[in-house]
Specification:
With 68 residues, the protein is of the alpha+beta class. The chain contains three helices and three strands, in the order βααββα. Strands 1-3-2 form a three-stranded antiparallel beta sheet.
Length: 68
C-alpha cells in the first residue's frame, strides 16, 4: 500500500492556526475588518477557506512586511 501526502484544498480555522502559526483571535479580527480571504460557509457553525487563497494572502503579507 502506498502512502500519499495529500495537501488539503480547503482549510478549517484550526488548520490555519496550526500551519501558519497565527492566533485564532487574529484571524477573527482580520475577518471582522475584512482583511482576510472570504470563508466558505458549510453550515451555520462551520466554514473553510481555499488553501490557495490563504497561501496567496500570507505571501502578500510577507512581501509587505519585507518592504516596510
Amino acid at each position: 500500500m502506498t502512502t500519499h501526502n495529500k495537501v488539503k484544498k480547503y482549510l478549517r480555522l484550526t488548520d490555519i492556526v496550526e500551519e501558519y502559526t497565527i492566533p485564532k483571535s487574529s484571524v477573527y479580527y482580520l475577518i471582522k475588518t475584512q482583511d482576510f480571504p472570504k470563508q466558505i460557509k458549510l453550515s451555520k457553525r462551520s466554514a473553510v477557506w481555499k488553501r490557495e487563497e490563504i497561501d496567496e494572502w500570507f505571501k502578500n503579507r510577507e512581501e509587505v512586511e519585507i518592504d516596510e
